[in-house]
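Quick one, probably user error.
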């Protein structure tokens, strides 16, 4: 087993070294292909390898360490890995800038930055955040919580889920600085995850109680996002509230919003 661990690590690192010679020659989603592979394939593989190897080392001592200590060690390793990965992403972005400027000294780096920031990063963030929420709901359906809280707490957490959905929708709507297509894509994602929750309810007959609170919390969350998706921009009062919220900016957020959505 230990041989397999080290052979797999050598293979991963050797693959990265072999790919380096192709830096700047191919592009994928506006990125340099090699840097994309480094950031989204090789780095995650190394992260998984590290956690798996730590688990392999500690499993023989699990009965001595206890669940609490194992959790602390795993969390510390994961946190360290996330810090390292954040620097990998910083290098990934700046390396793409360097490659483009090297090949074309007059290239507008800001344009590439906005493509990454406004579309790729925002859509990726919201896509995976919604996916995690739906996965948590599905896990809760198959693994009900063993909690004993009053019915009042259960009913109180449902509007809390709705409030979270409202916050999520506002966050998405405020980041809509490009064309209206951005909001349409997010509306489709909201609708998909809400109907996924509806399908779970009808197919799996989920009970309306605290054991399935994670499911019902996100059900309420996605119900709210879909309601707001339908009615929000039709409400002039809500639009005015958001505009006042941004009154401290020199040009006003509404001006920025209109500029990108109505260039004429």
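Nope, works fine. Designed sequence:
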């Amino acid at each position: 087993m230990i041989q397999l661990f080290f052979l797999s690590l050598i293979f991963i690192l050797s693959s990265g070294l072999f790919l380096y010679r192709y830096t700047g020659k191919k592009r994928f989603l506006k990125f340099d292909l090699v840097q994309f592979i480094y950031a989204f394939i090789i780095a995650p593989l190394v992260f998984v390898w590290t956690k798996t190897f730590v688990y392999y080392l500690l499993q023989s001592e699990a009965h001595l360490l206890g669940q609490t200590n194992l959790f602390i060690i795993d969390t510390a390793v994961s946190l360290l890995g996330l810090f390292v990965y954040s620097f990998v992403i910083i290098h990934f972005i700046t390396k793409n800038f360097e490659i483009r400027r090297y090949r074309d000294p007059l290239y507008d780096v800001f344009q590439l930055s906005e493509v990454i920031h406004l579309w790729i990063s925002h859509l990726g963030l919201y896509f995976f955040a919604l996916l995690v929420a739906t996965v948590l709901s599905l896990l809760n359906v198959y693994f009900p919580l063993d909690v004993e809280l009053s019915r009042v707490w259960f009913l109180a957490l449902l509007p809390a889920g709705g409030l979270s959905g409202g916050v999520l929708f506002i966050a998405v709507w405020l980041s809509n600085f490009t064309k209206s297509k951005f909001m349409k894509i997010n509306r489709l994602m909201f609708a998909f995850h809400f109907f996924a929750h509806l399908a779970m309810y009808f197919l799996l007959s989920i009970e309306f109680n605290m054991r399935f609170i994670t499911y019902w919390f996100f059900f309420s969350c996605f119900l709210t996002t879909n309601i707001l998706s339908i009615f929000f921009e039709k409400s002039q009062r809500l639009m005015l509230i958001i505009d006042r919220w941004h009154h401290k900016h020199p040009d006003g957020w509404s001006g920025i919003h209109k500029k990108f959505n109505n260039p004429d």
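The first helix runs from residue 2 to 19.
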